[in-house]
Structure formats: C-alpha cells, structure tokens
Amino acid sequence: MPVQFLVMGGILVVVGFCVDATVGIASGTLSALLVRGPAAQRWLNRVSAAIFGALAVRLVADR
Fold first, then answer.
1. What CA–CA distance (Å, rounded) separates 31 from 9?
2. Single pTM value for the model
C-alpha cells in the first residue's frame, strides 16, 4: 500500500512538471512574439481594455 502511494505521487510530480514546463515554454514563445512588434502590443492593449471594460460593466450591473 505505501509503495502505491509513492508511485502515484511520483507520477503526479512528473506529469505536473511536464505540464508546467509546456506552459512555461509556450508562454515564453508567445511573449517573445508579442513584444516583437508594436502592432501586436496595440492589439494586446485593446483586448485587455475590452476585458477590463466588460468586467467594469458587469461590476456596475451587479450592484
């Protein structure tokens, strides 16, 4: 029984590390693409503004 816990814990650690590494590599690649050009930065700023605006409207509507 304790060996099964150790094996499952080890599998959980390995899978978690693989997922975290994949997310880290993908986010590094994406950030390099977004920082490269001003058009991408403008697009990102507009998307962020739209998200914050939608959240503000939702906050006002909930009151």
1. 32
2. 0.58
> Phi then psi for 45, rounded to 5 degrees?
-65, -40
Are the CB atoms for 44 and 34 separated by under 8 Å? yes
Domain ranges in the chain are: 2-62
What token pair was written down for 27?
A: 């986010």
Q: What is the pLDDT of residues 21-58, one digit of tens each?
A: 999 999 999 888 878 888 888 988 999 999 999 999 99
36-42: list long-range contacts, CB under 8 Å, 24+ apart: none
Distance CA 39, CA 26 (A): 20
Q: Which two tokens stand for residue 28?
A: 């590094």
